[in-house]
Amino acid sequence: MKLKIFGGRTKEEEELPENIRVLIEQYAEKHHINYLQALKELIQKGLRYDELERQYGKDVDSRELWDKRFYYLKIESGYLYYRLRLKEVIDELKTLAIRFAGVLGSLETCYKQCMSSEALEVELKKLADLKEFIRYYLDTYVITVNKELEEKKYADDKEVIRFVEEALEKYKKYFMRGQSSK
User: Cα separation of 172 and 177, whole Å?
Assistant: First the structure.
């Protein structure tokens, strides 16, 4: 079937290029429809794509826009990354606080051995304030946050990891299928 296209203002006839005709035929075969119906559907899809492009911008074919699983995979993996990172930071803060407490203990011993009694009381008061600060720091930022992480209040890590692994498997299959056809 030859399809003739008429120009807008002129009555010139023009045939579809061979490569376009082949693509339309392939689409028709794939969907078990005739050539003209395939052409109509493709034109409608093209117009819809143009409308979406105007609505969403040039990145209308962005995977994140159309595939919410990809978007949620990014969120879940970000959640896991920052959750694990927070655990690492808490461990480092704990180590830092313990070392700082040790330094304060050594400094207190040094003050008691080397200073006169008048200045000693002032310095020991400063050290007591710093020790209280370390206790507050440990309670607020290390122990409490660690407990909250262990509560799994918002999500169970194993479940999130399972969802991420499932999504990764789907994408591996998808991308491998795409690469094998090339």
Answer: 8
The tokens of 50 are what? 């143009």
CA–CA separation, 118 and 135 (whole Å): 27
Per-residue pLDDT of the chain (182 residues; tens, 9 = 90+): 555 555 555 556 667 788 888 999 999 999 999 989 998 999 998 888 788 777 766 665 565 556 666 667 777 777 788 888 888 888 888 888 889 989 988 888 888 888 777 778 888 888 899 999 888 888 888 888 878 777 766 667 777 778 778 877 877 777 777 565 54
E strand map for the chain:
4-6, 13-15
Cα distances from 153 to residues 69, 84, 149, 150, in angstroms, run: 23, 15, 7, 8
Whole-model pTM above 0.70?
Answer: no
Structure tokens at 17: 């290029």
Strand partners, 4: 15
